[in-house]
Amino acid sequence: MPAFKLAWEQGADAIEGDFHLTKDGHIVCIHDKDTRKVGKTKLMVRDSTLAELRKLDVGLWKGEVFKGTRIPTIAEVFSTIPSQKRIFIEIKCGPEIIPQLVKAIDQSDLKLSQIVVICFNAKVLKELKDQATELKVTWLSSFKKEKSTGNMVPSLEDILKTLEWIGAEGFSSSSAIPEDYIKPIKSRGYEWHVWTVNDLKKAGRLKEM
């Protein structure tokens, strides 16, 4: 929550958070499937209740100034978002989260234009899109080069087929994306987003692309 609040103070247009479903059906914002990295104690999110997870201090590992920070629910994250600003919701678990996610969005004060749901798992996005066609979704993918052929995986053809199958509005890639993929993706009406961009030189190159 301190990071999200700082983002708004700095004038960010959007935030991105990673979300899992707890044992008792709550959606919480945490990157990993367990709490080992941020909470010292290792609890599996899917096997833990919200109350159990809330007992952990997940700020101290980052610095004394963040001591006392707790794992937030998706509703608490939603409550920080100003009007005209957006959130990218990354689903980090399976399709079991979908009913609760749709419910949480419906119960929030956010407009649909403020929300983008992203996920590496195309099947999860497909199921979400089937249940909530009005939600904007973006498929995530990294890239790797096959040793035997030197080809990049996924191929451009596979990306376009997957986006069409999902009914997605966009594609979000690692910065290793081949430059000649970008124009065909955008020419078919899909948005293209990219991560991770932590320096100006890379930002400039990617902006040109």
What CATH first level of the largest domain would be assigned? Answer: Alpha Beta
Mean pLDDT: 97
The radius of gyration over CA amounts to: 18 Å
CATH architecture of the largest domain: Alpha-Beta Barrel
Strand order of the largest sheet: 2-1-3-4-5-8-9
For CATH, the homologous superfamily of the largest domain is named as Phosphatidylinositol (PI) phosphodiesterase
The succession of helices and strands, N to C, reads: HEEHHHEHEHEEEHEHEH
Q: What name is given to the CATH topology of the largest domain?
A: TIM Barrel
Name the beta content range: 15-25%
| Unreliable segments of 5+ consecutive residues | none
Structural class: alpha/beta
How many H/I helices?
9
Number of domains: 2
In one word, what is the shape?
Answer: globular
Q: Describe the largest sheet.
A: 7 strands, mixed
Q: Residue share in helices?
A: 25-40%
* Distance linking N and C termini: 33 Å
Number of DSSP-assigned strands: 9
What does this structure look like?
This protein has two domains: 1-118, Alpha-Beta Barrel (TIM Barrel), CATH 3.20.20.190; 142-209, no CATH class. The strands form two sheets. It has a seven-stranded mixed sheet. A two-stranded antiparallel sheet has the order 6-7. The chain has helices at 2-9, 36-39, 50-54, 74-78, 98-107, 122-131, 156-166, 179-187, 200-208; strands at residues 14-21, 27-29, 86-91, 115-119, 136-141, 144-145, 152-153, 170-174, 191-195. The protein is an alpha/beta fold and 209 residues long. The chain has nine helices and nine strands.
